Amino acid sequence: MNRFAYLVFGIISYLIFFAAFLYFIAFVGNFPLVPFTVDQGRPILPVWQAAAIDIFLIALFGVQHSVMARPAFKRAWTRIVPEPVERSVYVLSASIVLMLLCHFWHPIPAVLWDAGSGPLAMLLLAIFALGWLIVLLSTFLISHFELFGLKQVWSNMLGHGATEPVFRTPFFYRLVRHPLYSGFILAFWATPRMTVGHVLLAVGMTIYILIAIRHEERDLTALFGEKYVAYRGRVGMLTPRLRR
Ligand SMILES: C[S@@+](CC[C@H](N)C(=O)[O-])C[C@H]1O[C@@H](n2cnc3c(N)ncnc32)[C@H](O)[C@@H]1O
């Protein structure tokens, strides 16, 4: 019974994540498909008031992601939360924090650049789309269903134990160590019309990504040892390394 309940919980968490992810693409891209976007929806507040709220939301996102992903937190947390659903609880928490960010975000409308609607704007939109595509593809390259907790609840349903983490370097991962984060950075920065609010989101998320990489690489080095150290030595972090 528990196994089935965990599986249902895992599937529901995954579906909520997917809806939040699609919403977030529309939010960053300012698509009028959703009520709140980075530049539209909430009333315009004085700049410092809006900036304080937005920075708090980015920090909340960063803290949730960083703290709940650490091995020490997971060890303590799985004394309360059953191990098979630990990742699904993480995914659900991350989705809730992402939706809070989208819902309470306050635009700061001053424009920093505007490429209009010509070829440059098209190019920036294409880079934006490419960024999200890289994010999605990267999740499949390192194991989409494990990253989002479905593999864990399914293995548990079949009565298998937890699987050991596997070090993978397919495709993009041969060029850069963090393609998923590179994709996010492209998606945050590539916009035909950059406002102060949007640049705050892009800067905040880029800082978060740089901090996340530090923590993630420390954990990966502890987990995979020399193999990861060698990989780090030969492959660039967010952009391919130019050979001499
Ligand atoms: C949100 S994903 C981001 C992956 C990577 N940082 C990127 O930007 O493509 C984070 C998870 O991927 C795992 N991970 C990162 N690089 C990996 C690799 N080369 N092989 C297997 N797992 C990896 C980390 O341990 C972590 O659980």
TrEMBL record:
EC number: 2.1.1.334
Gene3D superfamilies per UniProt: 1.20.120.1630
Gene Ontology annotations for the cellular component aspect, listed alphabetically: membrane
Keywords: Membrane, Methyltransferase, S-adenosyl-L-methionine, Transferase, Transmembrane, Transmembrane helix
GO biological process annotation, one example: methylation
Localization (cell): Membrane
Catalysis performed (reactions): methanethiol + S-adenosyl-L-methionine = dimethyl sulfide + S-adenosyl-L-homocysteine + H(+)
Membrane-related topology note: Multi-pass membrane protein
Transmembrane segments: 7-27, 47-68, 89-108, 120-150, 171-190, 196-213
Its job: Catalyzes the methylation of methanethiol (MeSH) to yield dimethylsulphide (DMS).
Protein name, as recorded: methanethiol S-methyltransferase
